Amino acid sequence: MNLILPDVRTDVAALARDVVKIYGRGETAVRALDGATLSIPAGRFTAVMGPSGSGKSTLMHAMAGLDTVDEGQVLIGDTDLGRLSERQRTLLRRDHVGFVFQSFNLVPTLTAAENIVLPLTLAGRRADQAWIDEIVAMLGLGDRLRHRPAELSGGQQQRVAVARALAARPRIVFADEPTGSLDSRTGEALLGFLRHAAHELGQTIVMVTHDAKAAAYADRVAHFADGRVVGVTGDEEK
Amino acid sequence: MWRLIIRNTVARRGRLALTLLAVLLGVAFVTGSLVLTDTSQRLLDDQFRTATAGVDLTVRDAAAFDSAMGVEVERDPLPAEVVDRVRAVPGVAAATPVVRGQGLIGVGGKTIVPAGPSLLLSWEPAPVGPFTLRAGRAPVAEGEVVIDAATARRHRIGLGAEVTVRAERAERLRVVGLAGFGSGEGLPETTVALVALPAAQRLLALGGDFSEVAVVAEDGTDVRRLRSAVSAALGSGYEVSSSRDVAAVGAAAAKTQISSLQVMLLALAAAALLVGAFLIANTFSIVVTQRTRELAVLRAAGATGAQVMRSVLGEALLVGLAASAAGTGLGVACAAGLRDLAGVFGMTLPDGGLVVTPRTFAVAFVVGVGVTVVSAFGPARRAAAVAPVEAMRRSSADHLAGRAGWGRTVAGTVLTALGAAGLSIVLAGPGSVVVLGEAAVSTVVGLALLGPAVTPGLVRLLGRPLGVAGVPGRLARESAARSPRRTSATALALAFGLALVSFTAVLGTSIKESTARSYAETITADYVVESARNEMLGGLPAHVYHHVSELPQVAVASRLRYGHWKDGQSVEALTAVDPVTLPRVTSLHMVAGRLDAVAGGGVVLAANVAKERNLKVGDTLAMTFSRTGVQRLPVVGLLRDRDAQALSTGYVISLDTYERNYREHVDASVFVKVADGVSGADAKRAVERALADAPTAQVRDQAAAVAGRNAMIDQVLGLVTALLMLTVLIALMGITNTLALSIIERTGELGLLRAVGMTGAQMRWMIRGEAVLVAALAIVAGVGLGIAFAAGTVAALGRATEATLTLPVGPLLLVVAVAALAGLLAGLLPARRAAGLDVLTAIATS
What we know:
By secondary structure, chain A is of the alpha/beta class.
């Protein structure tokens, strides 16, 4: 079963409005998100930047449907994630959200090619081979497809993760510190791929990072502190 | 150090819980077996001691041996004058004649047939008689009887009721009293009828004779000296024993069955513990792998390798101690349940207070702690080898997960090949059961070593059907293939249990089928009359044969008797036949000599027995009989093995020879050939009418007769299979445990799968798929091994007796289905846990 989102053409791919997320209760309660509001324009590469512990990852998890929020609203397209069940959120992630994590992105028992089409195969969908070929060519993974993750370098592993995130043509791709465990040259190459995907393929991408150099690759940078967005730069470039 | 160990163990109690349970169950099994057999033996000792408590010496007819195969031999009765001769010996305070025999009690037209004996005894008040009145009075007059209170209660027989007591003759008697035995109401599974001495003599057709003389010494007399005096006064035809010896001999005879049960129970407990050991080794190995980081930090902080090793072994010690303590308690509690289980499968054990000896505790703790610590030794050594730098590495789980080492694979291949070669030798002909046992050990050890090397391939092959179920199925397969050492250890534990179950089933069925076939080919009688009770020598009163053979509907009747004889130290059985009538109800093939020659006092041997003993027609065989001592019988013929098997023993003598050497006079079987022109049904009805006064006699057609012969095998098979299920259960806990631990290890990966869209249902499917796959691996290996070695055993046995391999397809399919289903069940809990993992936490763990 696939979760079908209404195919409305909108400039906003995802939206978080006045989101509050509290961990723990009573004395020890922590407001990880404290009225965070962020709009993600479609087809752009947005970075969410802030110091560690500022709540930026929590926001990403909420917007990606990995976690629920205590107050406020999160939309992907026109779909209010707060109204979805756990199962529906899983299906939404599978069909409409792509992920790149800092590390441990790949299933070790599957080959690179199998990892790339994993969300599609989980959904029982056929991969669009031309599209996959295009991504693979763009990421330069052509000769690595039959390898298992353990046989790939860190940079190659992250590129496979990017390919997987793009494979299902999701509404939005979330990348959580994707270069965090890469050396700087490999990291820069990966960031280049992400920007390329946004600019040339029209893929909406949100990247969470604490690294200003990485954020510089994005079209927009949302600055995050103490559980809320304190400013957005780069919007005027549009 | 110890505080760290204890805190570690407690912190990991969840991961160690199933390990603890496995050891606990194994220890409970051992404890239960020991408590049960100790209790049974003690009860039997008490019983026999009570029976002779007030008597100093017992005088009986002399016999070459007291008992054989758990049966006390019957002795000739003593003439009346013996009592006077005993009384005349100085130092004898009292000499009392005692009569004992078998007598069935009937009430309201129905005969009470207990699982044990039906005793008929002459009443003597204490201290000579072991029974004490609980109600009413002693049976002093004609027509009076006292029965045991237990039987009276069970069958609602009150004082004043009329019962029939049936021995050599039957009489209607009035119940005038109820008796107890020691502190109990009676003897287990036994009915007791106590009558006055003359009535007992009449019922048992003894004339003026009696069974034994109970002697009480005068106060202050040395019993040993008195024994010599009485013995000297009576001469060598009589045996004078101290009552304590008589009790010991009686108890020893009754205990033979219990000791074989004990051997069987302990062997099964060992199997359960072996499977438990696999599980423990696996658990500790996984836990150590998962803790590599922590251990490395310990090493970096200055802990020596030996300290790390001690910490792991210390944990094992704690688990072993806790499991042994709980297991011992559970075992004591379960001993009574085990007795009931044995009872369900037809093994009657005495009922009474449980006996828990210090030895039981010692064995339970040594076994429980020993198995745990020894199993944890390998993982502990690997833990000690963890280098401090591991602390700095990112992912530590994979490199210890265990690929197969070269040496291990080579050793495994060699041992498995040796095992297979041994099995082939046995299957091809020359090998013995000993070779087969060595081959079995070699194969099992070889497979355990070879497991990690062959598991990935096997798993991918067996898991092929899972591929059609999409990614979850494929991931299940790959996950099982990824940690070959873990998967193979988990599967082998279950395989071992399944191998034992299928071995038992195949061997039992083959033996039963072979018995049925040889019986069908050899016995041509239309009907067989046999006792419905499970009596070692059969239990038909002699008049059954006479009544049946006189019926006009019967063309010919022929009877068999069994007896025991001694060949040096070992006890053998023989069959006594009527050489004139037997050929008319059987189709016997002589390899040499003639069957009818046994009429002259000779013996016919089964061909394989003759070969084994290196005897041929014309040689003589020395046989020791209880009543007549050593007799040299000429070998007059050799019988085909299959036919000897149908007659139950490898030694055949004539009934006349039997008569001369045995006191026993019960028939085991009466073969009946229906007269021409009479329908089978009519003949059967007529025979049944003629058996009205022999309530335990049953008319059986061939199928029923075979079933009767196989009943004992069925009982043992049932009991063994039921107990082996415990082994299988422990192995299944192993699957649950391994999966649960592997889920902890794979938390990050599972979180990723959930993040990219695997649904909870798909994830549950994946984990259950892996569980079933491990079970499938075990089924293939276990059932395969079981069948192979059962085939080998049948081949080895086939040279001594007639045996061919028969596969019980239905039961084997049932084993496969149950194991697969159980695999699915074993995966339920881990699957639920995996699906319930919080995605965010799971991702964070990576």
